[in-house]
Amino acid sequence: MGRAVTVATCALNQWALDFEGNLERIFRSIDIAKSKGARYRLGPELEICGYGCSDHYYESDTLLHSFQVLEKLLESPATQDIICDVGMPVLHRNVRYNCRVIFLNKKILLIRPKISLANGGNYRELRWFTPWSKARHVEEYFLPRIIQEVTGQESVPFGDAVLATKDTCLGAEICEELWAPNSPHIEMGLDGVEIFTNSSGSHHVLRKAHARVDLVNSATAKNGGIYILANQKGCDGDRLYYDGCAMISMNGETVAQGSQFSLDDVEVLVATLDLEDVRSYRAEISSRNLAASKVNPYPRVKVNFALSCPDDVAVPTCMPIQWRHHSPEEEISLGPACWLWDYLRRSKQAGFLLPLSGGIDSSATACIVYSMCHQVCLAVKNGNAEVLADARRIVNDETYIPEDPREFCKRVFTTCYMASENSSQDTCNRAKLLAEQIGSYHINLNIDGAVKAVVGIFSVVTGRSPRFSVYGGSSRESLALQNVQARIRMVLAYLFAQLTLWARGMPGGLLVLGSANVDESLRGYLTKYDCSSADINPIGGISKTDLKNFIQYCIENFQLTALRSIMSAPPTAELEPLVDGQVAQTDETDMGMTYAELSVYGKLRKIAKAGPYSMFCKLINMWKEICTPREVASKVKHFFRMYSVNRHKMTTLTPSYHAENYSPDDNRFDLRPFLYNTSWSWQFRCIDKQVNAL
Fold first, then answer.
1. CN hydrolase domain location, by residue (predicted)?
2. Alpha-carbon Rg of the chain, whole angstroms?
């Protein structure tokens, strides 16, 4: 009868401008899909060139090389007898579009341009592409000569159309179109499209995966149908981690789920589904059928091909499954770990170096590296040849097999405790014990000699010797002395990263890891060009609250008992003199606010789009049980003063893993001035007026 269709989707770890590697991964996904009987294969958004090309999209080279890759795909026997749906940029009548190119047996069936472009947060698609605004309209696209020679076609359909095969009808969406209020799948479904496809370039944000899954399932819950989603996976060259989650859904229920985090470069999901289930589901939705009778039809591209076999009565079909979501602590353990692995292997470095202070932030960073080592050993155990080859190259041993995470950690991870006269023995012991438990190569050093030398130069030149506040110095002197210590640590971190392996008789250099969390970055509670300045920072988009929960997760799941004392100790920078051998300086006292408060300020400022006055108005209700309006006003003013005074530090913030929607990353996500009028006179006057009225 021809009712059981077999379709494939995938999550690919593509890399911007790595045309050779991207092509190889696309071919692998097609081979796997065909070997499992699929007749249609969907890939991620812009998979040929990689999603994160940014301003390289302006270059004609990017277009040229994308077509050269397409040529290789079209002429290969591997792509025969399966509809292949790939993503690439296309220039049509001198306008650049983000497109799907759908082909079968050396013939391009349709080029479908993206209709709704992603342009918020980290996305800037309107900078490089133009949305296709001609609904249900198709034009003639004249193919480049290199493609004409393979396909024998001079031109192909370009625009908003659907594919009509012998047995069903398919319609494409691209990423953002699923999230739009007027998603194309609504009208397409009413017009008889039974299979919807979505190629995504969707990145990880903590607690976001369920939203994507819910959208996919709801797309077919009201209208019936099969929904296939592909996504990119991994770090393709910047701060984002694309988190896979390829999936197939039918009639509002998930039937196939891909992994959110994994070190597999190619993951393919295949499902066999009964088209009659879609038709019977739709038959009893009278409101849908009434709307369908009035819909404007889509142009249909006829395809002489079937996704099913004539005699398929006995073919087993897939049943619904329950989607398993990761907890936020699992997401922190896995997402940044996979991002670090991609960065390490693709940068061709020999490992990481982390200044380990014995506090929560640097300890959480160390745990993420340890989690990465766990993931590498697990992938090798499961037969991942690419991970094994990368691990051998990184440790410079062609016979090496990573089996024990602690042993692998010893080879690729160096931790360094940089003591000063202001450091306590407690933090030194905590750092040493954690390093022993995760297996890192640990260094203890003292920076006092370097600090005294630098301050000595100042004293020789000026004839003045700055002092800490506890010794009678001004706040300016005390802050300058703290900053010298912090900056010396950054200089030493890079020195040891470059030469530690040399001193040990080993090749290569190390990437320096930063460990400033999203909250203290927002507040500016860090020294510019201190140890927050590094090559990359896996926790720069994660809140202190989430990091504490992650530390507890590591105690329970990795049996890292050293973390218990780290959890119970008050966060401190240890840059001011000790009092009776004990730490007198704490982060929250220094900042004039708690980390919990900072997290609230961050979400209101960025996610709720609140300026000083709006934030005050929201907080007098949120905190009415614990603060008077005057106290709320004081807290809000203090936050905005500190935020604006320190905003310049965000311009040099270390590239960080993006995990929170209130990240202050100045590069592309949170675009703000860095020279403010820090008095906020008008805004604060509005707050004062409201306080007096209350």
1. 5-275
2. 28
The low-confidence residues of the chain, meaning pLDDT below 70, are: 1-2, 573, 575, 578-585
Do 55 and 10 share a structural domain?
yes
Residue 287 tokens read as: 């409101």
- Smallest Cα–Cα separation from 576: which of 587, 565, 568? 587
pLDDT reported for residue 591: 83
Q: Which residues contact 645 (CB under 8 A, 6 or more apart)?
A: 524, 676, 678
Catalytic positions: 45, 114, 175, 357
Global confidence as pTM: 0.94
What DSSP designation does 271 have? E
Whether 82 is covered by a domain: the verdict is yes
Do 216 and 333 belong together in one domain? Answer: no
Query: What's the domain range around 366?
Result: 326-447+494-573
Name the strand (E) or helix (H) holding 586: none
d(CA 688, CA 257): 53
Cβ–Cβ < 8 Å for 251, 224: yes
Q: Give the pLDDT confidence of 119-151 residue by residue, as tens digits.
A: 999 999 999 999 999 999 999 999 999 999 999
Residue 266's nearest CA partner among 467, 464, 472, 32 is: 32
Residue 422 burial (CB count, 10 A): 21
Largest CA distance in the chain: 95
CATH number for the domain spanning 36: value is: 3.60.110.10
Tell me how many degrees the CA angle 135-140-141 measures, rounded to the nearest 5: 105
How many domains does the chain fold into?
A: 3
Looking at 538, 573, 608, the residue that finishes a domain is 573
- pLDDT at residue 665 in the model: 82
What is the full DSSP assignment across 186-233? HHHHHTT--EEEEEE--B--TT-HHHHHHHHHHHHHTT--EEEEEEEE
Distance from C-alpha of 579 to C-alpha of 429, rounded to nearest angstrom = 19
What is the pLDDT at residue 670?
86
Separation between Cα atoms, residue 594 and residue 318, nearest integer Å: 51
Please report, as a single letter, which amino acid is at residue 112: R
Write the burial class of residue 2 (CB in 10 Å: 0-12 exposed, 13-18 middle, 19+ buried). Answer: middle
Which helix (H) or strand (E) element contains residue 300? strand 300-302
515 and 374 in a single domain? The answer is yes
439 Cβ contact partners less than 8 Å away, ≥ 6 residues apart: 370, 373, 405, 406, 407, 408, 409, 410, 413
* Per-residue pLDDT tens digits for 185-242: 999 999 999 999 999 999 999 998 899 999 999 999 999 999 999 999 999 999 999 9
**Nearest alpha-carbon partner for 436 in 356, 516, 351, 335:** 356
Residues 276 and 332 in one domain: no
